Request: fold
Amino acid sequence: MSDQLKRLIDEQNTVWQRMTDIREAATTGNRDMTAEERTNWDQAEARLTQVSDDIERLERFAKLEKIDRSQVVVATGAKEERKDEGAEREQRYGAAFNSYLRRGMSGLDGDAQQLLMQRFESRDQGTQNDSLGGYLVPDEFRNTVTETMKAYGGLLAVCTVITTSTGADLPWPTNDDTGNEGEFLAENTQLGSTDMLFGQRKLLAHTVNSKIVRVAIQLLQDSAFDLNSWLPRKLGERIGRRAARAWAQGTGIDQPEGITTSVATGATGTGTISSGAAYAYNDMVDLEHSVDPAYRPRARYVLADSALKHFRKLKDTQGRPLWVPIPAPGFPSTLNGYEYTVDNSMPVVAANSKSVAFGDFKAGYLVRQVQGVQAIRLTERYADYLQVGFLGFSRLDGKVDDASALRLLVSPAS
Reply:
């Protein structure tokens, strides 16, 4: 744990204790807060929000992981290269790709051009053109894009993710056997039978792009400019924001199937939005118990920050806050005893919005990513601005896997 993170956690707990003392002083005296106490409370709450956001930001980036190669599904029949030859080839490809980003194809020698062309995929026409074709990015570039996507879409870090080598349709079996159970038998009695019923869903590979990112030619010529880090993160931010919104709210038509459009409602808020308390403690209890107990040991909340703001004001029937900040280094903040993930791609709190999801997201939602992230260099389009355009695109999908594992909390109508 970094010194900065430890300092922020200590400050968070100190501020939280200050707010607790203010509340207990008013409660013990059976009175409302004084004007001074309200001012101190508001200042402490503002600082707590700022510190909590900084902690979540640091933890989110600290937990970013590389793609798990063991989950890659090879969908072609090609033989694997030997590991040493593959690693050397990837290193040479990475160097060629970096030179291509900075100088274009005309700035590469024949071997580097040939290396790129071997992975060339043209999406626009049959001719190979530097301004229109796309080139598969090297592993480190793709991993940086993926890591940045995780940072901008909290859902991606808590659901099940599979990575495939191609974008071919991927049939996915489904099964819900929670309604079946075994049986006791008397002697000399024939065994009963209940067939296992399987369904099937198909994971596709929808294309999402970053839109064009323009870079000054002077920066590309400056060797001190870390293009290999800056560009994939910028592309990852844009792709990540759009993909995250689709995983949360997607229609399933030419884009992923979003959680809020496909998961059943577990509870409806009984508070009022205008009061800043759209939800009540009982609403959380109803939501949690709408999910089968078999899923609750791994359950968590996924919600928009606007919904978290409402929950942070709630108390249980004993007057204890439902939101508990980090109690000690290494322990997460919780809502009513469950961990939570803030994903601002979830709808904001509004009349009848679905801003909160609860359940086992590993079992409930499946994301499919295709390894073949591509980047296109637009050499001529912005030449009169002394700029080069870059465009990244990726193929992915997302679908509800086990519908019983997740439920939604709907905001009140007003």
Notes: Residues 1-52 form one domain. The longest strand covers residues 387-400.
